């Protein structure tokens, strides 16, 4: 494959410059090297690269800005190849990114598990050629999340479910959390939905929800 036009988005300056030097050594052209998500979007718009390498946690919030920017780019440019290179498996958006454009031209590698320079460069080439390259640890964590429905719950829903497990009524939960009973009922309905508990006798669903909580 001829040299690729690459945009790198990585907030760590030394890693960013090291990646740029590495790729140029293998005959690729780094058309932009940026340190935050807005700059990534601008660089892709300006340079039209074949592939972007992006970290998950970037300024300004250091949460999931890089991954969300990658999703936005895939939505607007389905042919753009994206290789996520991160220390983290960001489970909220990772599965959505891997599903984008039918999974073609996408990769997700963990920095600490990249043990060979040539294998990394080859992985980038496969992604740019429309392939899919995913670290087995990323797959394991995503599958683990899908098996455990409790990961779908918000922190507040976890609190409510924990109080249900203690045998508290809706009124007692409302007093404990200093919210209305209507708010508690709304949280419980959301818990039932996220735990895939179909409409049935409410007490029965409470028992099943508690069992799921205790298993976790």
UniProtKB/TrEMBL annotation:
The UniProt keywords, alphabetically, are: DNA-binding, Phosphoprotein, Transcription, Transcription regulation
Q: Which residues carry this modification: 4-aspartylphosphate?
A: 55
An example molecular function term from Gene Ontology annotations:
DNA binding
Q: Phosphoprotein: is it a keyword of this entry?
A: yes
Spell out the PROSITE patterns in the cross-references. HTH_LUXR_2, RESPONSE_REGULATORY
**Segments forming domain HTH luxR-type:** 146-216
Ranges for domain Response regulatory = 5-126
Which Pfam families does the record associate with it?
A: GerE (PF00196), Response_reg (PF00072)
InterPro entries for this protein: CheY-like_superfamily (IPR011006), NreC/VraR/RcsB-like_REC (IPR058245), Sig_transdc_resp-reg_receiver (IPR001789), Tscrpt_reg_LuxR_C (IPR000792), WalR-like (IPR039420)
Q: What is this protein called?
A: DNA-binding response regulator, NarL/FixJ family, contains REC and HTH domains
